[in-house]
Amino acid sequence: PPEIRRSDYAPFPWLVPTTRLEFELGLERTRVTARLDVERNPVAAVSPTIRLNGDGLELASLTCDGGEPEGRMMDGDDLLVTLSGDRHVLEIVTEIDPSANSQLMGLYASGGMLCTQCEAEGFRRITFFPDRPDVLSTYSVRMSGAKAQFPVLLCNGNRVDSGESADGGDHWAEWHDPWPKPSYLFALVAGDLVARSDSFTTMGGRDVELNVYVRDGDLDRTEHAMESLKRSMKWDEEVFGREYDLDLFNIVAVSDFNMGAMENKGLNIFNTKYVLADTETATDGDYDGIEGVIGHEYFHNWSGNRVTCRDWFQLSLKEGFTVLRDQLFSADMGSEPVKRIEDVRILRGVQFPEDSGPLAHPIRPDSYREISNFYTATVYNKGAEVIRMMRTMAGEKAFRRGTDLYFKRHDGEAATCEDFVRAMEDGTGLDLEQFRLWYSQAGTPKVAATLSHDGDVATLKLTQTVPPTPGQPDKKPMPIPFRVALFDRKAGTHSGEQLLVLDRASAEFTFEGFAHKPVLSINRGFSAPVSIERDVSREELVFLAARDDDPFARYEAMQELMTGYLVGSVSGDLDESESEAARGDIAEALKAVVEDDQLDDLMRGELLMMPSQSYIGEQMLVADPGAIHVAREALKTDLGTRLGEALHRLYDRAAQVPFSLDAEAKGARKIKTLVLSYAAASDPAKAAELAASQYDRADNMTDRQGALMVLAGLDSAERTARLLDFYNRYRGNALVVDKWFALQASSLHPQVVAHVEALRSHPDFNLRNPNRVRSLYMAFAANPAGFHAADGAGYRMIADLVLELDPINAQTAARFVPSLGRWRRIEEKRAAMMRDALERIARAPKLSRDTFEQVTRSLG
Ligand code: HT7
Ligand code: ZN
Q1: In terms of domains, do 188 and 69 share one?
Q2: One domain, residues 421 and 508
Q3: What PANTHER family does the database record attribute to this sequence (predicted)?
Q4: Are 92 and 52 in contact (CB under 8 A)?
Q5: Minimum-distance ligand to the CA of 317?
Q6: Cα-flanking dihedrals φ and ψ of residue 197, to 5°?
Q7: If we measure between CA atoms, which residue out of 191, 194, 212, 346 comes closest to residue 270?
Q8: Per-residue pLDDT tens for 381-399?
Q9: Is the ipTM of this complex over 0.90?
Q10: Boundary (domain end) residue, out of 478, 506, 534
Q11: Are strands 414-415 and 308-309 parallel, antiparallel or unpaired?
């Protein structure tokens, strides 16, 4: 497959002001008639042909201005039509079989209903069309089909007419979307659905009808989604000044979906996982996920739909910005510091490894073969961090001036990342010339920080290096904004936070008035997405873990205490007395957290959490997953033993808090499961008993799943009984059965590989349902104890899966490749087996473009 380059962008030679689509719907046969009004694009090079993209389509008929076109030919899957005039009308008829569409791109059948997924290049699987985001068109659509099979007919925009056939067997609906849009935002849904309906009055006084459509039987699990939608609409008005622009906003939940959700204009399509919730079947994490994703898709109405992307290299323009918007929204709806910590954990757990591996790319990539492979943590999450840095440097008010200007300037356009940065410069007054490097350079900067002290002056020396990444051997220094504070060790306070911007390879910053060497608190709030190597003593970390007034910095100190010990212990750098002293300090710091009555439990839970195995591995040039696992579990055992009583008192206190969805009760649930996981390492018999009792008494899914998660890792009678009970209790509820698969695949049980192998043959396992595939295999690939099994069985299992899944659902298959691509950072025996697995995939006679690109880049 050819490589597509950002530098090759050229405007499309034709405009398509209006598009008329007629769908005669059937699960096995849908006929699509497309009428395109096309005219020459005055700002593009003149072309004698129009390229209409197709993907696996059969053309039933084609006319130009009602007759035979002057010429036409196929170029691969695309249709080229000769057009000699300035304006033409093209009519194209295609026939498709949605029931055969297992890729879930384009028009497909899911549980008897029809739905679409067009981003990024799915529309070309429906009809021949210039399927690129810079071709904006106004759509009117007629849908018709059997009334009994498809009682609900939905499309973008507003329903303008409807009716039924003379015999009443068929019906039809006519939809019109007044907002010009690219084809990737097109959507339709036809099926037997019911809706929770509500309304929202915008700040301009317009009433908007809101519907959340689900299958019959799921309606009582839609309240949280609807409330989240209304909160999102209000928040976007208040914080970004953005008002909704149609009279109708529909959400539809489908159970077969490649990603989380899709922001189609006025008709968002969601994975059921991000819609359905009640306290019996959804965890606190699920509730938060729904609020975040509903917000994210809704916010796209402005950052994505009203202002869209010129080409797919600009994906972060909409995704990075919208992730930042959903993060700020969720922070405002709950605990700001805890949300920040969660976001950083995702960034470090997923994006940092991506940035240091063979798939590293800038947030605005320079080339791709398959765009679906670039819906990455880099484009989304690092993209959000880059915009967050601009916000930090500008301040909230100026940032808002920048976003207002961006929306005003580019409303109705297909814009670029450069347009965004320019609006930010003009709106905020910041000079972002050098800052643009964040868009073009991949790799996580490393910053060394040393603080020295002389007389009454403290000097902070900061040195940055941006590591080489594939195709980018040499990097330039980037502007890195650090929020810092210097603590007086004795008073335990600081005299104010400062913002320092490191914009050279190395710089020194001086601070006067310190009789003693202060304690440095740096990258507060995680103000920059970099990794810091600071010259800090354990005693200073203990100080910060207890005293820092920035919650993120406090969390960071706690993580650094544990990570430093674990890295030292795995590398053999610590002798027994140093080890003992370090474990003692960590235990003391944790005890202070357990007993700090100023802390709320949601934050306490963050401070008590151990760094993940993959994060520890990331701190080492070459990691031995087996050794890290042993060291991490040993520390957990040690801490669980030392803090046993204090943790159990904490558990007992948390267990008194009755169920509710408020922060206090959520915090109590988080604490209970955390205590259970420490207990599982230090006193497994007691933990099994406690977890079984928590499971049995649970009146909500958070407690029940937390208890089962702990039990799943223990070899006990309680484990088998509760796993069986869980399955029997919730069989038939797909989202909960997903949890049942995932709990077993991510467990610490020594037989996890065999368990996953067995679950593959479970009657409820289904390779065609991405949620089910992810629940078993993504959970497994993220479980170091199983995936990195010493004999390589985990790697072989993932390679087998990729090969089997690739012809069915290439997008989902390709998403499993990066886990194997980490081989360069893993000890040599395992690395060889990971490479073998990749090479075996690469040798397959026929691979999708998605998997081929990921495997070849991973083998590099
Ligand atoms: N913008 C949406 C991306 C998306 C997607 C991309 C490729 C294949 C399937 C997909 N489903 C949704 C989701 C979002 O970021 O809001
Ligand atoms: Zn998005």
Answers
A1: yes
A2: no
A3: PUROMYCIN-SENSITIVE AMINOPEPTIDASE (PTHR46322:SF1)
A4: yes
A5: 2
A6: -115, 150
A7: 212
A8: 999 999 999 999 999 999 9
A9: yes
A10: 534
A11: parallel
